Amino acid sequence: MTGYGKAEALWGDKKIHAEIKSLNSKSLDLNTRIAPVYREKEMEIRALIAQRLERGKVDFNLWIEKNESPASVTINAEVVANYVAQIQHISTEKNIPLPENLWELVLRLPDCTQVPATETLDEGEWQAVHTAVLQAIDQLVEFRQQEGAALYQKFNEKIDNIEALLAQIEPFEQSRVEKIRNRLVERLAELRGIDYDKNRLEQELIFYIEKLDISEEKQRLTNHLNYFRETMNQRHGQGKKLGFIAQEMGREINTTGSKSNQAEMQNIVVKMKDELEQIKEQVLNVM
């Protein structure tokens, strides 16, 4: 789910930047920073992002770069001229000398300076912004798709490896029954002077072997491997499902390991766990 996208748009003296990036997350965690003039469209922008990005920790930034920076405060020339004319008229009529700090005095009078009107968003500018936002999202989605193709190949490789390792268990599984039987007989032979019922021994041995049988675990693990492949080939939005399947695969591998009583089988189980762990690490990247 990691990705990055950026787009720009020009509108008048403005250069509008839309930037979006995402990291892994179990759900959609969206954080936005939007220039004040576009705040009224924040909900619409969030809807656009949520529609395309189902999961991920997403940071979206929309800001303006102006080609020129106009003064934040301007002087109202007409008002200043009117004040000066009135002061000069009163000075002449009343025979009052003009103050030395006339200019400073006038600028302190009401309405001599003005702050530019707050910017308003018109439909044309919003369309430019809207296009830039979509282009940034498209770039991020494309980035994710490229990453997804690489993950698809990696997952198939790991699933194939687990399948191959599972097949390697079979020869050891077939030979271990005879090894267990011989080991028990040898131990009983060491107990001199004690007679035992060989038929009962065979019965107990069969019961013991059944407890260690991993046929069901192997079958379920094979089914999970196939189901993982099928799920990968379905439409997007299967990340959580793949995570659940990987958990089930882990249960069968762990049970196989606990029932294995041969070093060779346990070594193979460790290798399967290593392959599965790599799947679990990367499955968080899947939507």
Taken in chain order, the helices and strands follow as: EEEHEEHHEHHHHH
Q: Helices and strands: which structural class?
A: alpha+beta
Rg, Cα atoms, Å = 38 Å
In terms of per-residue confidence, which ranges show pLDDT below 50 for 5 or more consecutive residues? none
Oligomer: single chain
Percentage of helical residues? 55-70%
- The strands making up the biggest β-sheet line up spatially as 1-2-4-3
Number of domains: 3
Total count of helical runs of at least 4 residues: 8
Strand content: 5-15%
Number of strands: 6
Question: What is the mean predicted local confidence, pLDDT?
Answer: 85
Distance between the termini: 6 Å
What is the general shape? rod-shaped
In brief, what are we looking at here?
The chain is of the alpha+beta class and 287 residues long. It has 8 helices and 6 strands.
